[in-house]
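MFS transporter: structure, please.
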Amino acid sequence: MQSAAAAHRVHASPPMPSYIPPFGLRTVVGCLGMLLAVHVAGFNEHVTEIGLTDIRGAMHIGHDEGTWLIAIYEAFNIAAMAFTPWFYMTFSIYRFSIFMTAIMALLALPAPYMPDVTALCLLRAFQGLAAGCLPPVLMTVMLKYLPAEIRVFGIGGYAMSATFGPNLGLPLEAFWFEKIGWHWLYWEIIPLAALAIGMMAYGLPKDPVHMERFEKFNWLGLIVGVPAICSLVIMLYQGDRLDWFRSPLITHLAFWGGAAFIVFVVNEAFHPSPYFKIQYWRTRNIQAALLSLVGILAICALMSEIPATYLEAVRGYRPIQTAPVSLVVALPQLLMLPLIAALCNSRKVDCRIVLAAGMLCLAVAAYLGTWLTPDWVRDNFYPIQILQIFGQPMTVIPTLMLATLALGPADGAFISGMVNMLKGLANAVAFALFSALTRRREQYHSTMLLDHHGTHGLALQGEGNAIAGQLAGTSVDAGHVARNSLQVFHTYVHEQSLVLALADLYFALIWVCLGYAALNLVLPRRVYPPRPPSSPAPMR
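Here you go.
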């Protein structure tokens, strides 16, 4: 009997590998590979978006057609984030992450050689779909594979995708276009993606595949949810250009997309296998964290867009000349994110206080921006950017802590899809707000300036026409001088009205930042950084 039992033990099948591997160097390499893959996806998004003007010139694409490249990519990118958790739980994190990273990189190869805009939009749609699958996996990897005592540092690593990556997009675009060639605006992700795949293949655990989950597959949620999210995102990106609801396209996207989204939300609330749980919105911390996440990321996007727009439109800077303004914020994040994560990892520190202090930093930065004038150059923005070095990580990390640490380990997959979808929507909301508010405030100030000129122009007639005086020596044709004088005058009016519009945006951001600071001091309950469970005392 004993020999039979021994033989049975010898020939028994080996145990399945642990779902959560013991923490070590291999796990660290896998997590860093996943982090690199997400940054590659972010570069693929931001670099091509910032360099769209250069891409359009190289590929002979018109302005209106070029806006669809951004809208379609972002629509599928954000839609993918909502449904990713179900698929990586089914196919395993290991296989799903490597496959999507490889697809994203391979689709970059033919991008510069697409024959027309339609083919390029189709390719970018699939590339956005693959890239959008990676950020939710990163959040799960950081929360699942890192030990409890350093899990907040994992949240800080995920926060890099919201602070470090977007601010690095402009310098990368400037480097690739000015130094290497415009093709590399697409191809830059290929070597980095190959490195990320190698690191993930080495370090991520090979989880089992659960194909039985397809027995309860949420077909209605997928069929209704993807068009709903894509419609709403395209509406945000194309709304201002098409004059919002005066456009039949925007009206249909808003009506049918909104109706489909309502059906999607109702289906998620009652389906036995949802993509994310709507019931989380009943929790105060989730309400505050998710609402704050959208607002904070939109604020950060707006405060990055305003200097770039001013320096390009008013001062005529090229991206390579604007790059130092973004690098001032991007590079210090490599130090600030771990420091803020270490601060929030202390049980003596309330992350809500850190969040409120970060919002105050952003409010002071916005206040400094209200002094914007047409005489500003790149150096004038550095104090504003320095405050953002502290403000961005101090707001993003505590917000992610409030959203994730109040839930159990089994809830991570459901919250990751929701958090990342809202993270993507924040960029779309920021784009729509910036386009709409800038255009309307610029039109308002332009009208007021021209009205004052028409009202008080005669009072200054004795002072002479300074513009005409400067241009008088350029031509003997008085009509030609008059036309040039009028053109220069309208250029000055445009510059002044744009500067006033951007200053108005800074002024509005002051009150938004203060509102979010007050909200997060009152609404969410305090969460504590996780700690490993204490081992029971030995029996005596």
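Notes: The chain has a mean pLDDT of 84.
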